[in-house]
Description:
By secondary structure, this protein is mainly alpha-helical. The chain folds into three domains: 1-58, no CATH class; 78-88 and 169-354, Hypothetical protein af1432 (Orthogonal Bundle); 89-166, no CATH class. It contains 19 helices and no strands.
Amino acid sequence: xxxxxxxxxxxxxxxxxxxxxxxxxxxxxxxxxxxxxxxxxxxxxxxxxxxxxxxxxxxxxxxxxxxxxxxxxxxxxxxxxxxxxxxxxxxxxxxxxxxxxxxxxxxxxxxxxxxxxxxxxxxxxxxxxxxxxxxxxxxxxxxxxxxxxxxxxxxxxxxxxxxxxxxxxxxxxxxxxxxxxxxxxxxxxxxxxxxxxxxxxxxxxxxxxxxxxxxxxxxxxxxxxxxxxxxxxxxxxxxxxxxxxxxxxxxxxxxxxxxxxxxxxxxxxxxxxxxxxxxxxxxxxxxxxxxxxxxxxxxxxxxxxxxxxxxxxxxxxxxxxxxxxxxxxxxxxxxxxxxxxxxxxxxxxxxxxx
Length: 354
Ligand SMILES: [Fe+2]
């Protein structure tokens, strides 16, 4: 934070508050070149937000119409799902995309045909194909052209990611989890995951976009199916100055990642997505493939850059060994930040389900 403190043109009071906020944000993170780099980026974002949206940093009043949590702990993620949850049903188009992906004889035309059944999805795919995420020289104006240019894997992944986001609806009444923040976090994690996977030289990086979109589905399900429990977790994390993960482990004995893994597995999504969600807070438990590790790092970066859920004021732990295993440097990361931020905002504008 030394470089930050040397900045002289800032409002000193806001600067002090931002430095304090960022120190607390990273209080569970080890000191490393990468973390120092990330702190500087976080400071820029926090300072700007403190100027433009100071209310963001005020504690939210406790919603009066949410009942106190009963204290009845579910034994496991499966037990929680059985007793509490009505899962969002999967849209038909998603089932058909999954079928096309799983069938080794499927062609690009088969995929385009399925996508064409859903005009809203087609519109999103075309806008994404023409966005900053890809730099095609010509305008992409039909689904078949989009599939041809993007390739089968990238196009199906984009479609899955797009439809996945539509599963996370805004609920009626008071929200503990602010769903707009959730959407942006999901997109940010997907975009960053895909970019760092590319930098790390991993093959087939398109799967990371969907993995990022879906990684916190367990968190959405906890907060939307049991608002009393959601509020209890939120307040516990704030009271203890811990991450939401810590609050979940203390209160439930399992975390939203484990729950998300069970949901994604029950939906018959590819195994890589199950693992990425299930182990994104414990990537050392799933080292065989890079998926959980990439999502772990992307999740941390996205929250550090301000694409967080607003549930806790601490980022939690970044597994340094996992991060280092991808051979990324702080410089590589800093270079990609402005482009990544632009992509996230553009994709959010295209996919915003509101
Ligand atoms: Fe998470």
